[in-house]
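Worked example 4.2. Below are the chains of a multi-component assembly; read each line carefully before continuing.
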Amino acid sequence: MPHALQIVVCAGIVPDPLQTLEPATTPAGPGIKNEMVLPAVLDPWAASALYEAAELVKKNPGSKLWLVSLGPKAKLQQVMMTVAQKVAFELVPVDGPIGGFTDAHATAAVLAEAIAAIPALDKTRLLIFGGWESATRGAGVTLQLIGERLGITEQFQGVDQIDLREDGSFEVLERVEGGKHQVSVCTAAPAVLGWATGNLAEPRNNPQIGMANMRTVMPALMRAKQVKLDANTLSYVSVSLPKQQRETRVEKEMTPEAIAAEIVEWIGKDN
Amino acid sequence: MEKILVLAHADDSGASLTRHSLETVTAGQQLAAKLGAELAIGIVGGEAATLAKTLPSTGAKLLAISGEAFKQARYATDAAACEALSRAAAATIVLAPHSARFARVMAGVAHRLGGLIDTHIGTIGGDAAPQASRWFYRQRIEAILARSARPWFLLVDAGSYAAFAGEAGGAAVEAITVETPAVRTTVSGFRAPKQDEQTIRPDAKLLFVAGAGWTKKQPDGQTHVEEAGKLILGFLHGSGASLGSSKSLVDQGSEGNSVLPFLTHLNQVGQTGATPRHPKGLATCCHGEEPHVVGWRFIGQRRAISLDPNCGWTRGKADVVYIADAFQVVAKLNELLAAKK
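Applying the procedure described above to all two chains together yields the following structure tokens:
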């Protein structure tokens, strides 16, 4: 028997991974040079969470999906033009700073407040999804902090799979060391799940979903609450690009036999 | 004066502390010596006295939470245990390994204590006040940060410090009691490929990265996925290497294309994959920033086999690039490795 779930996906926006990044000093502290004009995408691991959530909603009639995202309104609008083509959701935007150098505790406080303010949210059916780490700060703590603020103590990180059962319980596979998954069974919602890659491919663009989403996305963006993030005593001593540049030897003339012999010798050396 | 607590946990066997925990003990010792701070070590899980047997020589105060409920890695119980240990030690700085077990809970613990947390810490330096280094934007930008607020929780990355190795001896461990919280999650075990099919080997000296080129059309106009699979597995068996993969290769499987059957997202390195630590790395048929920059950040010596002499991503990132057909080279490699055995 399907279970009507309420799934809230927390997803930030990040510079397109193909962009070259350079640190810069801004009035608010460290940042990325030209960050506001760099193409942005939905955070990759959080995007996995969104696609997995949409699949669960599809399989469980009566379920609902919200996408909570913090970022500058203009950037959110740009990213949502693409994301809204993929899966159906209701956007809960929060207008605030972007970037990896902000404090995760401040981000979590803002997102938890936004989630708590969602009308008619039923905690007994609530699953909070997100990426287990972001592609900016990459700290992997924001979801936990949101869970703690909302009083949810069933939490899972590095999730690759969730299987709902007839009785409302669900099995979760979490990544652990050594290429393994830890298998857990949780009796019921609420729970927090920080997703790794999951098992789903990126959905194809669907213009009908896009049109339906944009009817609610644009008004939501217009109403987005503006927030500032507290630094919580976080300060940066230095922010820099790694300087290590290797002298690369390019071998164009060696035969496969000679290359193999050299590699075997290299592998066998202790250093 | 700062009070430093190192949190440590048992390995899967329950009989020993993880190597990563012992590395964090070293980090704690060094920081305590630098700051002239008190050091305590808190242990979660299993039989505390057994787990602590090598720790008396640290000179640290030893605290532990044991019991059946704390053997398993689970948010509710681990968070309660770490919270109780942190309170008992009255720690101002808490160091813990950035393991799957503690990464799952430590932010929640910091929140419960009114503290703050930073993770993926490489080294902890600074003079009068500690400063921690870590990477941002998926290993593209490095930063050194500090916080004046306490308690400050720091999750230390694996491989950042040498593992503490002390003489085994009788350990005086103070047992900390904590009420077992209401638990709705049961851990039923682990799921992993069979031992001989496991291609992820964190302790391997070599990381072998397979790129999408393995499944592309070869000079005869055909793909040779089956042959590629045999060559790669042959190399892994012969060399004992761990297998990494580029995102583009793993994604082919999700999209229903023919791919190497033993590859999963767990093998993926780069932006949405792992950033493993191995002394050496050999990339094959890869093109792009993901495997060569993000996924290779913590690889010591790096070599690549590529057909593209102009691949800009290998230049300056790899020590040696062989311009050759990986099918031919790996076949020869496997012959040589087999002959050596």
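Take a moment to check your reading of the output against the notes. Chain A is about 30% helix and 30% strand. The CA atoms of residues 84 and 213 of chain A lie 6 Å apart.
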